[in-house]
């Protein structure tokens, strides 16, 4: 059994209809909790040194579509372990809870849930890229081949 009965009751009561949220409602709630960024804003923040770009796309998508130069590649299933500043498996880039992280997935859905998870770890400046990698590429921002 996952969670407590109390937690489940609170979720149902918050909805008012007794049903758990669907994914669309959950995404809406999550995204309301922090400002998301557009591709150009993410690029500018990275160039100025104000943000760490983190690509969570799986390998097949990176190989197919390419990479964002300078982005840290962290598979989604490792994200929290690698970016928790207090974690024993953190990356050197996980310098503190004030770190601004822009999470990038393929189209901007999984990254929203990932950013919210980072918020739970205390990374309050974590956000995600609206439209994901596809929006980055459509904006004409730098992309390299995976082999590079």
UniProtKB/TrEMBL annotation:
It holds the Pfam family Rhodanese. Residues 1-22 are annotated as: Disordered. InterPro entries: Rhodanese-like_dom (IPR001763), Rhodanese-like_dom_sf (IPR036873). Gene3D superfamilies: Rhodanese-like domain. SUPFAM superfamilies: Rhodanese/Cell cycle control phosphatase. Transmembrane segments: none annotated. Residues 47-145 form the Rhodanese domain. This is Rhodanese-related sulfurtransferase. It comes from Streptomyces thermodiastaticus.
């Amino acid at each position: 059994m996952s969670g407590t009965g109390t937690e489940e009751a609170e979720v149902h009561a918050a909805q008012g209809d007794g049903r758990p949220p669907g994914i669309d409602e959950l995404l809406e709630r999550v995204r309301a909790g922090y400002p998301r960024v557009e591709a150009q804003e993410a690029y500018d923040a990275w160039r100025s040194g104000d943000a760490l770009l983190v690509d969570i796309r799986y390998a097949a998508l990176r190989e197919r579509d390419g990479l964002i130069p300078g982005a840290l590649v962290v598979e989604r299933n490792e994200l929290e372990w690698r970016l928790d500043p207090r974690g024993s498996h953190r990356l050197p880039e996980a310098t503190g809870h004030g770190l601004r992280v822009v999470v990038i997935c393929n189209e901007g859905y999984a990254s929203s849930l990932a950013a919210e998870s980072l918020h739970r770890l205390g990374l309050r400046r974590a956000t995600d890229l609206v439209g994901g990698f596809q929006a980055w590429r459509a904006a004409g921002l730098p992309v390299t081949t995976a082999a590079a």
